[in-house]
Design brief:
The structure is a homodimer. Chain A has 10 helices and 15 strands. Chain A has helices at residues 14-31, 41-48, 75-84, 107-117, 136-145, 157-161, 167-190, 197-210, 276-295, 302-315, and strands at residues 35-38, 60-63, 70-74, 92-95, 124-127, 150-153, 249-258, 261-271, 325-327, 356-359, 363-364, 369-370, 374-377, 385-386, 394-397. Chain A has a 6-stranded mixed beta sheet. Chain A has a 4-stranded antiparallel beta sheet with strand order 9-10-13-14, covered by helices on one side. A 3-stranded mixed beta sheet of chain A has the order 7-8-15. In chain A, α4 runs parallel beside α5, α7 runs antiparallel to α8 and α9 packs antiparallel against α10 (302-315). Chains A, B: InterPro entries: Creatin/AminoP/Spt16_N, Creatinase/aminopeptidase-like, Creatinase_N, Pept_M24, Peptidase_M24B. Chains A, B: This is Ectoine hydrolase. Chains A, B: Keywords: Hydrolase.
Chain lengths: 398, 398
């Protein structure tokens, strides 16, 4: 790796970035890709250490088989790239500001000119076709400006390399888990009938950013989700200013975040005396979670977790339509999943030590909901390890 | 509008949603679009009142010339749609969960089947080609599944209809502005040498969500940006745990948010005695802002604001490469701009009463930065009105 001019606070060791680049290059070779355009901000950060809220304009990282990656983005963001990436300043290039949200020109036309300048006009170029930050228009503009190139779908090519976490990454996730625990502790303390929901959110967002000890909190890729009562049927409603009510369950879907690494964690709080339907759902769900954790072993498959979970739920008459988990780690809004494996009956991916998942069997019924989840690590031997250490139950406050 | 089953807390009046639908339909007709697929979450919310953090999976709103819109998304999110949109429940449709992040099937294949079922397989279908939430793959999958349809680029078609705010929307933005003022007041109080940056962020995020009076705060579409010293050259760096230092300027880019409506607001705090370069830049910038506000009148053009700003800056030897503003209002991550007008010398859009902008002439030099900005409303007569009421200056704390 080249020397760099600024004193940079890289999150990981040089070895770690070399590991990531080697994995990416090997995957490129297998896919027959000569140059890879990475536009997923998490993939960009994973490879180069770039970090900034600039993904609302077009940007990317070019990965080559035999030269350092190139960060490419808006001119004004090159200052942020120079300050965060491990590559030399000569590997950071910007495009003029009048490409931004223009109706006349597209940033991908600038990128195409760069590639042509590198003699890559006829390259086999990998692009992440299914990504928030590679729009339909970006694809069209790039393809039109590089008529001799072959564009190859490299969706999730880098994401798959991120699946098995290094020890350095797991250490970050353990710090994030401490923050998740702190958030849940704060919820248990503060949620009471009559307390407006936004007030509780304000306090837990404060907790999340204050972090734990010297480990400051980063912004999570999803805001806290905490619907109550009938609204808990809807997994993705955000907060408002109405109070928590006696006789209602609220699920809390949150994640501590340490330097972009997440450990999501969900618990449900019932205020008052839960009806039998909640008690029996809780029992079945906890039994399913524990069966799933047992099944979450290296050598088993993703579907084995889903099937282990499903059995006790089915016995309790609960049919879940949705997947029950996804890989986690480094991420940027709008999602904290890695978008590779889905824990569901049709996914036969073999589990390997170092993989990390949010085991997330949320129950969203027609007029109520219940979430009890765990962020887990697949270990060398034995069942999955849970990142957070809090009782696996629905909490009841009388 | 149809009756609905749930007691819904719609943000706006029925008249307001009728206005929006009529504007959208007229724009569709001008563009020769028979059915419009809206995937931008802000456009979806503007038309239907849908609100939820579900945009990390494919979803959309179909707008027809002569029938109520249809909300389409993941099955588990139909519960959120039923609870938030003004249309009847029969206008909410979901797709099976095994379409989510699948390598075998794409949600757009489900949407295509819905359109075919409506007899629209040969329709002139508008799609938002340049949008975070309409990926290159989504476009390909939709086009492949609807070979007889004509896909028309409807990028920003709805965004342009959002430009002139109604009185109801302006009332929301005034509430957001009060929250912005509260955040800036909190910054002035708390930023001191030696205070770790994340601690200040924790407090202002709390302030933002607590809101002002009965007006609870929503999440802003961009997290607070607050780089210091040399890092202030980089506009989009987020926080860390290092302390504020004497002798450094930090700019704060924040936005209060009330029910998804934003009023961004930026101020700079210098700790210690600012060097002459800051004083002269501040003077030129404030002069430029005031000239720009004078030029921001109905009947003038966007470029007139940019040109008015540029003159005093150029006299001070400061050349800005970037645009100096964009329209604001309703938005979702990752951006709080509307992505239509850009306030820059080449944009000749005529300003109209009710338009709202973030007038944002940030200075990002090679090793320092300065931001003093205003969120503004174009009025019937006279110069622009500023939403926030705080001194237009660099704040100096000795």
């Amino acid at each position: 790796m080249r020397q760099h001019r600024f004193q940079k606070d890289l999150p990981f060791s040089e070895t770690e970035y070399e590991r990531r680049l080697a994995l990416t290059r090997a995957a490129m070779e297998r896919a027959g890709i000569e140059v890879l355009l990475v536009t997923d901000p998490a993939n960009m950060a994973w490879i180069t250490a770039y970090d900034g809220w600039s993904f609302y304009v077009h940007q990317g990282v070019l990965v080559f088989p035999d030269a350092d990656p190139v960060w490419w983005g808006r001119n004004q963001d090159t200052n942020g790239a120079i300050r965060t990436v491990w590559m030399g300043d000569d590997r950071v290039i910007g495009y003029a500001d009048n490409y931004v949200q223009s109706t006349e020109r597209h940033p991908m036309e600038d990128l195409a000119q760069r590639l042509i300048g590198m003699g890559l006009e006829g390259a086999r170029l990998g692009v992440e076709m299914e990504n928030y930050y590679f729009s339909a228009k970006a694809y069209q503009a790039l393809a039109a400006a590089l008529p001799d190139a072959t564009l190859i779908d490299a969706t999730a090519l880098v994401n798959w390399q991120r699946g098995i976490k290094s020890a350095e990454e797991i250490a970050f996730m353990r710090k994030a888990a401490k923050i998740s625990e702190k958030i849940v502790d704060g919820l248990l303390e503060r949620v009471e009938p009559g307390v407006p929901k936004h007030q509780v959110v304000a306090e837990i967002q404060r907790d999340a950013i204050l972090g734990v000890g010297d480990d400051w909190g980063d912004y999570a890729s999803i805001v806290p989700l905490l619907p109550s009562g009938s609204d808990a049927a809807a997994p993705h409603l955000t907060w408002d200013g109405r109070p928590f009510n006696k006789g209602e369950a609220t699920f809390f879907e949150i994640a501590g975040c340490y330097r972009r690494y997440h450990t999501p964690f969900c618990r449900t709080i019932f205020l008052g005396e839960p009806p039998e339907i909640f008690r029996s759902a809780e029992a079945a769900l906890v039994e399913g979670l524990e069966a799933g954790l047992e099944a979450a072993r290296a050598g088993n498959r993703a579907c084995d977790i889903a099937d282990a979970l499903a059995a006790p739920l089915e016995r309790a008459g609960i049919e879940r339509g949705a997947r029950c988990g996804y890989p986690i780690g480094l991420s940027y809004p709008p999602d904290w999943g890695e978008r590779t494996i889905s824990i569901r009956s049709e996914d036969e991916t073999v589990l390997q030590p170092g993989m990390t998942f949010h085991f997330m069997p949320g129950l969203w019924m027609s007029d109520w909901g219940l979430e009890i989840t765990e962020s887990i690590l697949i270990t060398e031997n034995g069942p999955a390890e849970c990142f957070c250490d809090r009782p696996r139950q629905m909490f009841v406050k009388p």
